[in-house]
Backbone:
């Protein structure tokens, strides 16, 4: 992987959106609690299945918005694994030999066509400009390289939950919602599926699939309940939900 000096910037710390994101994730306990929820584990199991099917050796791997990466240990002995995020306290929790860097996923400081595998898990919906980041991923990915995306999307029943949360935030304020549900960012949106479809066209081949990971309002009341998994297993059997799963996955390959 080669650094492109002309694309190296200090994080734009005056950017309110970046600040809000960092504040949201700068609490490791709350972050770990979010990662441990049955809802999160269900979709992470699908991510893990995909990662286990990747036989990578000598590859340059870039994880964007890695948090505390769940994939670095799988890949970092046989590959160059670069884990990046804007939240320093999370980046620091990743172990060597991964290379750890603070990096805004919207501006990648790497040269064109130098990365073999790019990982986005639950980060695109946190970005002010998803198009910017996806164009960067397309730019830095190597021929035959892959891009993996796992994100929540609009065409799902979780979107109802998302809008109820927005409404509660407007009426009762962000602090109130934070107390109620823990780690979250007020600016979260959903994956811009249209942008993925448009940007990874022509030189790219795409495989898309969805799973249902039903999201209960993550009130403390439901904290340790497995109700969301029980609901997900039930709804997953109904054919209609196969097409409107709550989480969308893309496996994108750059052809040339
Ligand atoms: C929901 S967490 C996902 C963490 C991890 N990828 C996972 O597998 O669960 C979202 C992450 O995106 C990071 N993030 C938010 N905005 C970002 C940006 N502009 N550039 C890079 N990372 C960002 C946050 O700091 C946080 O670690």
Residues:
């Amino acid at each position: 992987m080669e650094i492109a000096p002309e694309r190296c910037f200090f994080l734009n710390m005056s950017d309110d959106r970046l600040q809000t994101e960092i504040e949201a994730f700068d609490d490791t306990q709350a972050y770990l609690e979010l990662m441990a929820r049955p809802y999160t584990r269900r979709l992470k199991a699908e991510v893990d299945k995909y990662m286990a099917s990747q036989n990578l050796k000598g590859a340059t791997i870039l994880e964007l918005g890695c948090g505390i990466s769940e994939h670095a240990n799988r890949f970092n002995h046989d590959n160059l694994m670069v884990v990046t995020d804007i939240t320093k306290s999370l980046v620091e929790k990743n172990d060597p030999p991964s290379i750890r860097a603070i990096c805004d996923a919207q501006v990648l400081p790497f040269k064109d066509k130098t990365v073999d595998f790019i990982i986005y898990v639950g980060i695109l919906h946190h970005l002010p400009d998803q198009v910017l980041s996806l164009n960067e991923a397309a730019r830095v990915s190597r021929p035959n390289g892959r891009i993996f995306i796992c994100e929540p999307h609009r065409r799902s029943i979780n979107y109802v939950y998302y809008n109820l949360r927005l409404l509660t935030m407007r009426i009762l304020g962000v602090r109130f919602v934070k107390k109620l549900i823990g780690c979250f960012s007020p600016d979260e949106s959903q994956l811009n599926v249209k942008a993925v479809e448009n940007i990874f066209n022509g030189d790219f081949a795409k495989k898309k699939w969805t799973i249902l990971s039903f999201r209960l309002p993550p009130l403390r009341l439901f904290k340790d309940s497995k109700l969301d998994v029980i609901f997900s297993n039930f709804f997953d059997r109904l054919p209609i939900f196969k097409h409107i799963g709550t989480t969308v996955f893309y496996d994108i390959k750059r052809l040339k």
